[in-house]
Each structure stands twice: as structure tokens, then as C-alpha cells.
Write a structure and sequence with these properties.
The complex is a heterodimer.
Chain A: E1 2-7, E2 10-15, H1 21-36, E3 41-45, H2 54-69, E4 74-79, H3 81-89, E5 97-100
Parallel strand pairs in A: 2-3, 3-4, 4-5
Antiparallel strand pairs in A: 1-2
Helix pairs in contact in A: 1-2
Chain B: H1 7-33, H2 39-58, H3 62-79, H4 87-105, H5 116-132, E1 147-150, E2 156-160, H6 162-170, E3 177-184, H7 185-189, H8 196-206, E4 208-214, E5 232-239, H9 243-250, E6 257-260, H10 264-273, H11 281-287, H12 289-308, H13 322-328, H14 348-374, H15 377-402, E7 403-405, H16 407-424, E8 428-433, E9 438-440, H17 441-462, H18 466-471, E10 478-487, E11 490-497, H19 504-513, H20 519-524, H21 527-532, H22 555-564, E12 568-574, E13 578-586, E14 591-599, E15 602-607, E16 611-617, H23 622-625, E17 626-629, E18 632-637, E19 640-646, H24 647-651, E20 657-659, E21 665-667, H25 689-696, E22 707-714, E23 717-723, E24 725-733, E25 747-752, E26 758-762, H26 764-770, H27 776-791, E27 798-804, E28 810-814, E29 818-825, E30 830-832, E31 835-840, E32 843-849, H28 850-853, E33 864-872, E34 875-881, E35 883-890, E36 904-910, E37 913-918, H29 920-927, H30 929-942, E38 948-952, H31 956-969, E39 972-976, H32 979-989, E40 995-999, H33 1007-1016, E41 1025-1029, H34 1034-1043, E42 1047-1050, H35 1054-1067
Parallel strand pairs in B: 8-10, 15-26, 19-23, 28-37, 32-34, 38-39, 38-40, 40-41, 41-42
Antiparallel strand pairs in B: 1-2, 3-5, 3-6, 4-5, 7-9, 10-11, 11-13, 12-13, 14-15, 14-24, 16-22, 17-18, 18-19, 20-21, 22-23, 25-26, 27-28, 27-35, 29-33, 30-31, 31-32, 33-34, 36-37
Helix pairs in contact in B: 1-2, 1-4, 2-3, 2-8, 3-4, 3-5, 4-5, 6-10, 11-12, 12-13, 14-15, 16-17, 17-22, 27-34, 29-30, 32-33
Classes of the chains: A alpha/beta, B alpha+beta.
């Protein structure tokens, strides 16, 4: 399930559940139309995500690839420690903004 | 996010550091070998650089990648023998590796580094070579057409130069087959608990790795299919393995491995570039299946190890385990690379051993517990024995994990010496010995700086310029030898050069200038002492601070650093021949071999490093071995005077107490370390009845009253530490002291003893400082004077110079009359008109022999004699004697009768030997009466004959001596035996007395008191009073002057006494003021 908040040009998607298989697909479908609209910031909240798979990461990268064309950048927040570590090791944090949980 | 937070990057950087650590040495060796290229050596450097390059691509460390790429090319040229590794080439490579290292060490500032210059240099040397290499192939094309490497979707992943591909095929581990391997970043790497660097390393280990790339672009847009949104991590490699084998070893489905067909055209083209095909083992491998087999086996092992990694989930940083690392890790064979701060690589064998020992320890613990509960003493003993044994082994094994070879430090000096000598225009060969000697890594890390300083010093100050060396008859090339050896639980590092040695005069001047020593102190110093001055703070001999060695750091810092490591630095230098610096270091800092000692009930540890020897002086010997100079006890040890420090004094434990077996503190009667019977002076013998009683039941007959001394080295000074008891030596574990004790300089730390008690570790240098033993001579002087001032008022003490003339015939001369003592060659004595003389300080010094005047055994013939210089009749003369024996203080009674003759005014028994007191004045008067006559005439013109002088003096001997010359000069003399009697005489005949001469130390009433009493009487206010004493001292003089004395003179200095009498009689008390 994905919660969508849009206010004053800030898009925030709160993903509730692990981003694997079908969830990756829903996330993609949720994002596609949003990306076509105007916004200042695009944020995905991973607070309730404890696992992410290849396609999940693929969706994030693909989103970033699209955002890049609009000169925007994807921000991922409340990333749990293991996922954060994975992002770092894979050096994904070089491609979009990654923020850990705020304790 | 800053680079430093990136875990994988950190691993890569650390491993790169390790790879780079060895290449400097290898490059220098390559240079040395010159045209005789050692393929293996060059390969090693190549592989190191290649590995660094391999990772840098993935981590987007472009500068590292570019620089290492160019270096790789140059190395490849060397390897193909197209480029001779001249020093220009090696310089460029060294510079490159320096820069690589500095970038790797400072990843955060990497972006600001300019790599264009070193790259240009490297390109240049490569160019130069290809231009000048004779019939070498046609010029290499500047820009080669890059070959695109496509993925199945026909996207360009890599662009590789044909050269590179060619190289890859020939490279060890490489092969004719080129593959593009596609990993899924998540499924194939993350899920397998790997990281991209692991993948790269895997490729590096198994194949020839060409390049890698994470292709984010390949993910495409969100428009695409989710299933296709994978993140490929591409690795390009060459190998001899077919697809199936590779797939097996990399653990990837064959579908993710794509064969690349490099165009034949490119291949041919690059073949042209290398017209002389070098048969390489790689090609043979490709053709010889039999060779492929062992490789496959090796690979299988690597594979197995990679799979086992899955179990190490919590440790993604774990390196590929043993088989792979040992067989094909690119790091230089066998040598342990330099580590970063936080982690240590442990040899697997050691780790296995630790494991085994831990297991055994558990078993033994069980035994111990069981035998404990069963109260089976025998089993318990057996168990505790094996605990003992196990602990030792465990300790060794754990220590082994911390040990590193000194070669790590030594090897960097090759470069330092090479560069420095080049800059200075010197030619220096550095030889190393004992590189495999191992030391604790803490020490290895910290010894680098001091050692560098010493080596730099040798290069800069020690070794001369080549022409200077030739002039000095040496080989133009200087030599520096670095040597490490084991010596009784220590590691000794010698830095030996064959340079010019230390310049003593320059050291002296410098030391004087900087106020480290006074001239007097210098005069007393041995050559070695003077050399050691260079370790004093504030000392630097370099004429000017040079860029190279003088970085504002003095040798004192070197010494402090080495001392901090528990080590000692020493030096030996022979002018013209060279210098040897020696550093002695403990093997480890954590465990310290020490001697345990006891003071009262407390135990202390003296580090073995400081300990020189143990001396036990039996009660009977105390008087012969321990003496007192001033207050300070000293010990004679093989002709050397050693200051003694009592631990009790250091600790502030009352000297006169001791602890008996039951721990009760009792009073000890011993007050001084030295025996009262020691040849001490100063200490008047106490003849009080209790003292006599004490002497009778002298406890010194019991063996327990012998003195235990640990002779230790505190910095550059030896001293004797007096302790109550010497215990065992043992290995102690050093525990740092708490903050509250940090300022107690006399302790270096603490340790816990086997019985659970605590022992403090003594810091010898701290003790020396605490006891203010830094300037011994000065301290001694003050002590002496203090003693004089404080013990005045008892009995006469004489400070005597004891000399030997004829064999076993001893003479005493009051030290205060002696101006100087000189050693001379007897051949230099000239006899003119019966008068002996010697050239001395630009003039001639009249010499007199005792046997010329007195009937004594003549001076035994020897090449060297001593002369005692003193002043008579206002001129300096010398008494010739065989040798000076000693200086001592004594309170013996002088016998003015038995041995009295010309030149001898008395005798006394000193040290159980009859010693004759020389009458210096009499000798001169006898031999050259005209000298004395002329002087006396001048004096006597002023003499007011017939004046009356009161002489207050308790010694019959001195009364006779002084009255004699007073009467001879024409005075009337009244005498009194002590202060009381003196006052009586003044009472009766006060008006007749024109001047008083008084002794200080007299029974009943001393000189001070008498004078104070006299001065209270208004009639005596203006009477000149001269004090005469056998020992002078500033404090005693001040005290005398305060009491109302006008002058303070030496008893036997008749000329001075007469001169003063004249002065005061003619001019009154105001004469000198």
C-alpha cells in the first residue's frame, strides 16, 4: 500500500510494505503519472520498508533516471539501517538523496 | 556523504595502501637491476598498480584510475623490455606511486590533487624510450581507435584500446577469451553478501580483470517493464577459461556471461605494435591443458572459499579466505603489508593456534573446576601447571599477532636515502640487515619517526661529500648500515655510518653557547659524555637548520620518543671513521621483563631495559665501597663513581625505619647509607657515650644489613638504586596509571602481581629528574657547602688531596691550597741550572720534587706524572708527584712530630696508611729561598713588627704551625685553646691585642660564638679578627662574616694569612671593604 501526500509542490510517497515484486510494480505505477506533473520535491518515505529487492531498487533508479531529465532529484527518507548500508555499498547514494531514520 | 563513511571504499583504500606499500621497494630494486629486467619483480609492481586501478574505476576515483593507468602502461613497457628502467623512469614511477598513496590516504581531498604533471612525466619517459630504443617498432599511435564492447542490447558498456586487449590476453591469468560478465547488483552481489569490490577482487584473482562499471543508465525509465529494471554491474575480463568454467567459478548463470569477439583487425594491428612476440607462460597455459588443470584446482579452492563466505553474514568486509589469497593475491610474496590503524591481518596459522589453545584452556578450566570441587590437590596442581603452560603459549601466540617485522620500517629508508643523497650530491649505499626481526606493531608504528631522524642525520651530517671522502682516504661512496638484532629479550637497532663522526669541539662550543653545560662541567666530561650532549634538549649541531634533517626536531625528541617506547638510545662515534647510533627496544610494550624489588613492604618493578647489574655490598664492605661526597652517597664500581639514590629517600620513607617479617614498622638506627667508618669526611666521629655503645653492638655484623643496589641506566646516566630487597625477575603486564597518579613522574605504570598485589613500575629517568641528579657536579658542590655550613662547630675537618710519589708512599696536601692538577709527560720536564721546569700556559712553571727536599722514596719512573700547581710568593709553582690517588675529607689528628722534616710538616694515618702532609711552602723555601725572600721583603716592609696577635686554636699542630710563622714574621703571639679560653685572654690582656686569629671548630665554644661575644663588647668593635679553617666554603664564610669576622682564610696558607694581618693592622677593619 502506498500513501500519497502532495502539498505545495512537495510529493511524498509513503511505502507501507516491502518493495518486492508486486509492490515494486505498484510503486512504479503510482509514480509514473506523478512524474509528469509539476513538483518541487519528490520524496519516498521508506519508514515501513524493511526489505527491497532488485526490481525495487530498479524502480528507484528508473525514477531517478526520469527525474534527472527534469533536473530534479529523488529523495529517499527514513531508510532502515540494512537498506541504508546496501545503498551505500552499491553506491546508490551517489545517485539519489538517501536519509536514514530520524531515530 | 563523505567518502570516509563508505565502508567498502575504506576496505578498498586500505587494501590499496597495502598494495602500494611494497612497490616502492620493488621499484628501487627494478632500478638497481637496470637492463636485466626481473620479470617477476616488474610484474609484482604491475599487479599492485593494476589492482588499485581495478577498484578505482568502480569507486569513480577517476584521478587514481587515470594515474594508475599511465603507470601501468609504463610498467608494461618495462616488462616488455622496451623501456630501460633508468632512474628518470623510476623517478616518474615513484612520484606517481607517492601521489597515488597520498590520494588514497586522503580520499576526501583527492579532488584537489593535480595529477597532470606526474602523468605528463610518465608519458614523457615512455615517449623518450620509444623514440630512442634503436630499431624499435614504429611509433606507437598517439590515439588508438578504441574498441567498443557491447552488451546484448547493443549498448556500449566499455571502450577499450586494442593495446589493452592485447595485453589482457598475454597477461598472467589472462587469456585469449574475452568476456563481459553481467552481475545483478542486488541478486548477484547484495543477496550473496558480497560487495562490488569483492566481485572485482574475485575477477582480479581468477582472471585478468580489465574494467568494471555499474550501468545505471541501463535501468532505463519508469516507462519500461519492472522486470527489466535490473541494475547491471559489468565486469570485463580475459581468461583461458571457457564460459562454463567461468560461470561455475563466478557463481553466475552462463546467460550473464557474454563472449566478446575483438575484431581480428585490431588484433593484427596491435600485433604489429609488438613485432617480437614474447612467448609468455600465458600462451603456454592456453595451449597446454596439463597446466590448466592445476589452475582449475586452485580456482576450485577459491570457489569453495567464496561460497563459505555466505556464512559470514555479519562480516561483509571479510576478505577472500586463505587458498585464494595465499595462492594468487597480488601482494608481494610473503611480506606483511603495512596496516592501517585499526585492523591487523593475522596469519591463519596463528589464528588456528589461538583456536586450539583456547580449546585447551577450556579443557583445563574444566579440570581445574572439577579438581577444585573434589578438593583433589594433585589434580589441581596438574591443572594449574597446564594453565601455566597454556598461558605462556597463548601469550606467545597473541603476541605473534601483534608482531611485525622491522623490515617494514627499514625498507622505506631505501627511498629516503636514495632521494636525500641525490639532493645533497652525495653517494650513499644503504645496506640492511635483520629486516625479519619482529617487534610489536605499536613499536613499529612509533619507531619510524625517530629512526628516520637518525638516518637522515647520518645522510645529512654523517656522510661527507664524495670529494671530501676521497681526501680523507675513503671510498667516495658512503655507507649506511641499518641492522636489527635480537639481544636478550630486546631488539637492538644499529644505524652505522662511515662518515666523519661527531665533531667534539663543535659539540662543546654549541653546548656552551646554548648554556647546556658550563666550562667546568665540560672539563670534567669524558669524550662519550660530550657526545651524549647532543641528546640534551635545546641542542642542535647543524650549522644551520637544513631542509633535510633539521625540521626543528632535535635529538632530544628522538631520545624522548625512544624512551617513551621503553627503549634506550646510545651512540659511539670516532671522528673521521663514523658514528654508530644504537637503539635498544623492548619486543613489546604490553609485557615488560622486569626485576622486582622491595622497599619496606611495597614492591616495585624495574624494567629490565634499564637494569645494568645488581650489586650487593656486604656489611663489611660498606665502608670501602660507599663513600660520601658532600651529602651524596656514591659507590665505586670498577673505578667509576656512581651516584647512589636510596629508594627510601625517593619515596619519602623515613630512612631509619624498616619493616620486620610481621609487617611492623620498626626503627632502624642506620641514618646514613655510608658507614660511619667509610672514608667519609665531614662527618665527625661522634664520641658521645651512646654512640660508642651503639658501635659496640654493631648490627652490621648481621648479613641483613648489607646494601642491595640495582645499577640502572637513567637516560644517559648510570646510577645506583638502593633498595631494601632484590626479588625475582618476572614478566609483568603494564597497566597504565590512573589520572591521579599521572603526575608522579617516578612511576611508569603499574602491574598486578601473581598474588594479586599491585606493584608500581619505576621510571628511572623520572627518578633521576625527581632526585635532581641532572647536574651532578653542581649538586655535589652545593651539598658539600651545605654540609660544611651545617656541621661547622665540631672538629677540624681537612679536605685533602692524596697523592702517591714513591711506590706506596702517600702524601696529603690541603686541597684549598691547590690551584690545579695537571697530567704531564715526564719527557717534557726540562732541567736548567738545577731547576726543573715545564712549559705551561705560555710560560714556564717551576717544578719541585718532594724527594729533592724530604728524605722520602723518590718518585717511581713513569712516562706520565702529575703536577700539583699552587701559589707561593705570588707565583705559581708545581710539585711533581707520580699520581693523584683521591680527594677526601677527614678529621684525623695531624701528628706534627714523628715525621716532621724539611718539606713535611706532619703525618696522619689515613685509610690505614701513614700519609705525610706536604709543606708546600717549606719545599719551595728550601729549594728556591730567593723567591720567598724577595716576596717576604716586600711584605715585611709593611709589617708592623712587635704587634700582638691572639691565636685561638684547639689543635696543637696548627697552633705550632701558625705561631711559628707569625713569630718568624715578627709578631708577638698569645694562644688560647678554645673560644672560652680566648675570651679569658681577651678579658685579661684585651688592650694589648692588636688582632685575633681564630679557628672555627673548637670544643666548648666555637669561633663563631666567641666572635659574636667579642663584638658585643664595644672595646672589641674595631679589632680585626681573621678566621682560619681547614675547609672553606661560601656558606661558612658568610656565617663567619655575619658573626663579625673580617676574613676567612685557610690555615696553612701562610702567605695569605700574613698578607691579611698586614693589611688589617695597617688599615684597620675597613681594609678590605
Amino acid at each position: 500500500m502506498i500513501e500519497k501526500n502532495i502539498s505545495e509542490g512537495v510529493v511524498t510517497l509513503v511505502v507501507k510494505g516491502n518493495i518486492v515484486a508486486s509492490m515494486a510494480k505498484s510503486l512504479k505505477e503510482e509514480m509514473l503519472p506523478l512524474l509528469k506533473e509539476e513538483f518541487n520535491e519528490f520524496t519516498i518515505d521508506l519508514d515501513e520498508v524493511s526489505s527491497i529487492d532488485s526490481s525495487g531498487v530498479g524502480v528507484l533508479i528508473a525514477a531517478q533516471n526520469d527525474l534527472k531529465k527534469k533536473n530534479a532529484q529523488l529523495t529517499v527518507i527514513n531508510v532502515s539501517e540494512p537498506i541504508l548500508k546496501m545503498f551505500r555499498i552499491m553506491r546508490l547514494d551517489r545517485h539519489f538523496n538517501v536519509h536514514g531514520k530520524k531515530d | 556523504m563523505s567518502n570516509s563513511e563508505d565502508e567498502v571504499l575504506l576496505i578498498f583504500l586500505e587494501e590499496s595502501r597495502e598494495h602500494l606499500a611494497g612497490i616502492e621497494e620493488d621499484l628501487l630494486a627494478v632500478e638497481e637491476a637496470g637492463e636485466n629486467i626481473d620479470q617477476e619483480l616488474v610484474n609484482r609492481v604491475f599487479r599492485a598498480i593494476h589492482t588499485v586501478k581495478g577498484g578505482s574505476g568502480f569507486f569513480a576515483l577517476d584521478k587514481i584510475k587515470d594515474l594508475s593507468h599511465v603507470m601501468e602502461n609504463v610498467l608494461d613497457q618495462i616488462r616488455k623490455e622496451r623501456l630501460v628502467p633508468t632512474s628518470a623512469v623510476i623517478n616518474a614511477l615513484l612520484e606517481g606511486s607517492d601521489l597515488l598513496r597520498s590520494m588514497i590516504n586522503n580520499p576526501d581531498t583527492m579532488d584537489s590533487v593535480d595529477i597532470s604533471l606526474p602523468i605528463a612525466k610518465l608519458e614523457q619517459v615512455k615517449q623518450d624510450a620509444s623514440g630512442g630504443a634503436g630499431p624499435a617498432p614504429a611509433e606507437e599511435p598517439e590515439e588508438q581507435d578504441l574498441i567498443p564492447i557491447l552488451n546484448p542490447d547493443n549498448q556500449v558498456v566499455f571502450e577499450i584500446s586494442p593495446d589493452e586487449i592485447q595485453r589482457a590476453k598475454k597477461e598472467e591469468k589472462g587469456g585469449n577469451l574475452l568476456y563481459l560478465v553481467e552481475y545483478d547488483l542486488i541478486d548477484d552481489i547484495e543477496r550473496k553478501n558480497k560487495n562490488p569490490w569483492d566481485v572485482i577482487k574475485e575477477a582480479l584473482t581468477l582472471t585478468y580483470f580489465i574494467d568494471s562499471k555499474v550501468d545505471f543508465g541501463a535501468v532505463g525509465s519508469l516507462e519500461g517493464d519492472v522486470e527489466s529494471m535490473r541494475i547491471p554491474f559489468y565486469v570485463l575480463l580475459s581468461t583461458v577459461m571457457d564460459k562454463g568454467l567461468l560461470s561455475y567459478f563466478l557463481g553466475l548463470p552462463e546467460g550473464q556471461i557474454y563472449s566478446i569477439q575483438a575484431s581480428d583487425e585490431a588484433e593484427e594491428k596491435s600485433e604489429e605494435v609488438a613485432p617480437t612476440p614474447i612467448p609468455t607462460p600465458v600462451e603456454e597455459k592456453a595451449e597446454e591443458p596439463s597446466i590448466v588443470e592445476p589452475i582449475a584446482k586452485e580456482l576450485k579452492e577459491a570457489k569453495v572459499s567464496n561460497m563459505t563466505q555466505d556464512s559470514k553474514k555479519s562480516e561483509p568486509t571479510a576478505k577472500p579466505s586463505k587458498p585464494a589469497a595465499a595462492s594468487s593475491s597480488p601482494q608481494p610474496g610473503g611480506k606483511q603489508p603495512v596496516k592501517g590503524e585499526g585492523s591487523v591481518r593475522v596469519n591463519l596459522k596463528v589464528l588456528d593456534k589461538l583456536m586450539t589453545l583456547a580449546g585447551e584452556l577450556v579443557l583445563t578450566r574444566n579440570q581445574l573446576l572439577q579438581s577444585g570441587s573434589e578438593e583433589n590437590l594433585q589434580a589441581m596442581q596438574a591443572a594449574s601447571q597446564s594453565v601455566d603452560h597454556l598461558t605462556t603459549e597463548l601469550q606467545d601466540a597473541i603476541m605473534a599477532t601483534r608482531m611485525q617485522s622491522i623490515g617494514l620500517v627499514f625498507n622505506k629508508f631505501k627511498r629516503i636515502v636514495r632521494d636525500m643523497s641525490g639532493n645533497l650530491g652525495k653517494s650513499i649505499a644503504l645496506t640492511l640487515e635483520g629486516e625479519d626481526v619482529e617487534l610489536d606493531r605499536t613499536i613499529i608504528e612509533k619507531i619510524g619517526d625517530p629512526l628516520t631522524h637518525l638516518v637522515r642525520n647520518s645522510v645529512d651530517h654523517g656522510i661527507e661529500m664524495p670529494d671530501e671522502r676521497i681526501q680523507a682516504g675513503k671510498e667516495a661512496r658512503g655507507h649506511i648500515h641499518l641492522k636489527a638484532t635480537h639481544e636478550a629479550g630486546f631488539v637492538v637497532i644499529d644505524i652505522i655510518d662511515d662518515g666523519k663522526g661527531l665533531h667534539l669541539d663543535r659539540i662543546k662550543n654549541k653546548a656552551l653557547q646554548s648554556g647546556i653545560v658550563t666550562q667546568t662541567e665540560l672539563d670534567e666530561m669524558s669524550e662519550k659524555d660530550i657526545q651524549l650532549l647532543i641528546f640534551k634538549p635545546g641542542f642542535s649541531t647543524a650549522k644551520e637548520v637544513t631542509e633535510i634533517s633539521g625540521r626543528g626536531v632535535g635529538m632530544d625528541v628522538v631520545r624522548t620518543n625512544i624512551n617513551d617506547l621503553g627503549g634506550i638510545v646510545d651512540l659511539e662515534s670516532t671522528p673521521g671513521e663514523g658514528t654508530k647510533m644504537q637503539i635498544k627496544l623492548p619486543l613489546t610494550l604490553a609485557i615488560l621483563p622486569s626485576l622486582m624489588i622491595k622497599v619496606q613492604a611495597a614492591r616495585f618493578a624495574i624494567p629490565q631495559a634499564n637494569l645494568l647489574e645488581l650489586v650487593r655490598i656486604t656489611a663489611r664492605d660498606v665502608k670501602n665501597r660507599i663513600e660520601t661526597i658532600g651529602d651524596a652517597p656514591v659507590m665505586r664500581l670498577r673505578g667509576e663513581l656512581l651516584p647512589l639514590v636510596s629508594m627510601r629517600e625517593v619515596l619519602g620513607i623515613q630512612q631509619g625505619t624498616w619493616t620486620d617479617e610481621s609487617g611492623v614498622v620498626r626503627e632502624d638506627r642506620r641514618k646514613n647509607i655510608a658507614d660511619r667508618r667509610s672514608p667519609v669526611a665531614g662527618q665527625a666521629r661522634d664520641d658521645s657515650p651512646e654512640e660508642n655503645k651503639r658501635r659496640q653492638n654493631d648490627r652490621r655484623h648481621s648479613p641483613s644489613s648489607s646494601v642491595n643496589i640495582a645499577v640502572v641506566l637513567a637516560g644517559d646516566m648510570k646510577l645506583g638504586l638502593i633498595v631494601d630487597q632484590l626479588l625475582d625477575s618476572s614478566e609483568i603486564v603494564v597497566k597504565p596509571l590512573g589520572v591521579h597518579l599521572k603526575r608522579a613522574k617516578i612511576y611508569a605504570g603499574a602491574t598486578i602481581m601473581g598474588d594479586g598485589g599491585v606493584a608500581l613500575i619505576l621510571d628511572m629517568f623520572g627518578i633521576r629528574q625527581y632526585m635532581k641528579l641532572d647536574q651532578v657536579s653542581l649538586a655535589e658542590q652545593t651539598d658539600l657547602e651545605q654540609q660544611r655550613a651545617s656541621s661547622d662547630g665540631l672538629k677540624d675537618r681537612h679536605e685533602l688531596l692524596i697523592v702517591e710519589n714513591g711506590d706506596d708512599e702517600f702524601f696529603a696536601i690541603p686541597l684549598d691550597l691547590v690551584l690545579r692538577i695537571e697530567k704531564i709527560q715526564t719527557a717534557d720536564i726540562q732541567v736548567t741550572g738545577g731547576q726543573k721546569a715545564i712549559k705551561y700556559r705560555g710560560g714556564s712553571l717551576g717544578l719541585f720534587a718532594i724527594e729533592d727536599v724530604a728524605k722520602v722514596t723518590p718518585r717511581s719512573d713513569s712516562d706520565i706524572a702529575s703536577i700539583i700547581v699552587f701559589k707561593v710568593a705570588n707565583r705559581e709553582v708545581g710539585i711533581l708527584v707520580k699520581q693523584v690517588i683521591d680527594i677526601l675529607q677527614t678529621n684525623v689528628e695531624i701528628d706534627g712530630m714523628t715525621h716532621k722534616q724539611d718539606g713535611i710538616f706532619g703525618s696522619a694515618v689515613i685509610d690505614e696508611k701513614i700519609t705525610l702532609f706536604l709543606d708546600l711552602y717549606g719545599i719551595v723555601n728550601h729549594m728556591a729561598p730567593q723567591w720567598v725572600q724577595t716576596y717576604r721583603e716586600a711584605e715585611s716592609e709593611a709589617t708592623l713588627k712587635g704587634k700582638t696577635i691572639l691565636l685561638v686554636e684547639d689543635s696543637k699542630f696548627f697552633t705550632t704551625q701558625i705561631s711559628e710563622f707569625l713569630i718568624e714574621a715578627g709578631y708577638k703571639v698569645l694562644t688560647a685553646l678554645d673560644g672560652n679560653l680566648g675570651l679569658e685572654v681577651v678579658e685579661k690582656q684585651g688592650d694589648d691585642i692588636d688582632l685575633i686569629i681564630t679557628d672555627i671548630e673548637m670544643p666548648n665554644m666555637d669561633g663563631y660564638e666567641m666572635v659574636r661575644t667579642l663584638r658585643k663588647n664595644s672595646r672589641m668593635k674595631d679589632l680585626p679578627i681573621i678566621a682560619v679553617t681547614s675547609v672553606s666554603g661560601d656558606r661558612a664564610r658568610d656565617k663567619g662574616l655575619k658573626a663579625g669576622m673580617d676574613a676567612y682564610l685557610i690555615k696553612l696558607d701562610r702567605e695569605e694569612i700574613l698578607h691579611h694581618i698586614n693589611g688589617y693592622l695597617n688599615h684597620g677593619r675597613s681594609w678590605k671593604k
